[in-house]
Amino acid sequence: MSMNERGRGVIFPAALFCMVCGMVCVAAVSCPALPAWGEEAARTLTLEECLALAEEHHPDLAGAEARSVAERRRLSLTAVEDRVQASGSLSATRSGREGSSTGSSYSAGVTASVRVFDANRTRYAVEAQRGTLSATEAEGRKTRLQVRSGVKKAYMDLLLAGEVRGQRRESVDSFRRHLERAKGYYETGLKPKSDVTKAEVDLGNAQLALVEAESEVRVAQAALLNAMGVDLAEPFEVRAEDRKLPESAEGDAEALALEHRQDYAAAGLRTLAGRAEVRSAARASSPSLSLRGGYSAGGEEVSSLKSEWNVGLSLTVPVVDGGAASARTDIARAQVRSLEASREALRQNILLEVRKAVLKVRNARERIRIAGLTVAQAEENYELAEGRYRTGVGDSLALSDALLALTDARLSLYRARYDLQVAQFALESATGVELTEPEGAERGRAD
Fold first, then answer.
1. 29 vs 346, more confident
2. pLDDT at 24 over 50
């Protein structure tokens, strides 16, 4: 075989091998990553999905709805006194006595009654119960907002835990590279053995911090599931989503709170219901007038029943009740004063809560600005220390300190961002209105 033939015989298999490798690489890049054998792909949950799960499954919301249903039934029961009430009866009797023949008797009848006048006692009782129902429904809306606020807080806790874990992983990688570099310098005689020992200790501490961060992620996941009221069997992760407040939110916060806080609205409704209860209790000693009527038929034979009817008015006038009506009225008035005082105290607490929340939002924004400057400075110091160590001028201690300072600075920035989001959610809770809107920026993922 000639030299050219042998060359072509070698080039063709090599070209075929390169072409196959290229196809494999293209397939690896273009195809999505698949979970490993035996592993289940994690489900990604957005904040809106978590909120929807909470509204569907959280037991507090089911309890709030059940309380509203119970109050609706109580309202219906209170209004019974002003409605027509009727009843019917049907009987058949067969009797006998020793020495005489047996006999039969049959009867059927219908009676009805309606209260014509009770000095509006029932009307005010219905008004009071209607106010109680409205207050209960307002408290249900407050419960819903609390559940959503709890989900948002737990969601942000999980995101922060994921950010911390990611930073801990970067620290482990950095300290591992530093250890390999220190070993290389030691083997060539450029650095002492103490540098290797220091790098090993730093790597061990970073690995321990990573283990703790992994544990915090699992705890945060469990807390989010609890906040949603669900227990997902499959693994899940959440995606970061920055949210912002409208520009006018801080200035209008106090007015928004007094207008939209459902607990404040419920306090006002309960006060109105209490006043209606006072009016109802004050009329307990008033006379009442009812209209009654009936129709009946009876006899010994079904074919020859004799009928009769009656219609009449019934007037009831309480004469002496031992002071019960007056006592109930005084109790109702005292309860109204207590409700009014509680409502005023709640108003003051709401305004204080709003002002604190606004200040926390402003402080968090300032902390983000300062933390960003600190990170930039820490990155410069780390690059300088690493460059000095790489050229043999710097020492291991300075590089380790610079890396730790950079890690702490980045974690401080993450926590400042987290504090801003939580402060915004706290302002939402204080105002009773969901004000934040997604910015659309995604920083990372926590699973």
1. 346
2. no
pLDDT of amino acid 215: 96
Mean pLDDT value across the chain: 84
In angstroms, rounded to a whole number, what is the distance separating the alpha carbons of residues 426 and 243?
13
pLDDT tens track for 68-103: 999 999 999 988 877 888 899 988 888 777 766 677
Among left, alpha and beta (phi > 0; psi -120 to 50; other), residue 345 is alpha
CB contact at 8 A, 425 and 244: no
DSSP 319-354: ---TTHHHHHHHHHHHHHHHHHHHHHHHHHHHHHHH
Which pLDDT band holds residue 396 (cuts at 50, 70, 90)?
confident
Helix axis angle, 253-260 to 324-390, nearest 10°: 140
Between CA 181 and CA 186 the distance in angstroms is: 9
Amino acid at 223: A
**Residues 6 or more apart from 153 whose CB is under 8 A from it?**
227, 422, 425
Q: What local confidence, expressed as pLDDT, does residue 393 receive?
A: 76
- What's the residue count for the chain? 447
Neighbours of 373 (CB within 10 A): 11
Strand partners, 86: 112
Tally Cβ neighbours within 10 Å of residue 41.
11
Global pTM reads 0.77
Per-residue pLDDT reduced to its tens digit, 419-445: 999 999 999 999 998 888 776 544 444
Residues 309-321, buried b or exposed e (16+ Cβ, 10 A)?
Answer: eeeeeeeeeeeee
Helix (H, G, I), strand (E, B) or coil at 93: strand
Burial of 20 (0-12, 13-18, 19+ CB in 10 A): exposed
CA distances from 155 to 88, 162, 266, 421, 429 (A): 61, 11, 29, 10, 16
Residue 237 CB neighbour total at 10 angstroms: 16
Distance CA 279, CA 145 (A): 34
Which of 1-10, 171-180, 344-353, 404-413 has the least mean pLDDT? 1-10
Which residue type sits at 338?
A: S
* Cα–Cα distance measured from residue 332 to residue 276, given in angstroms and rounded to the nearest whole number: 9
Burial of 426 (0-12, 13-18, 19+ CB in 10 A): buried
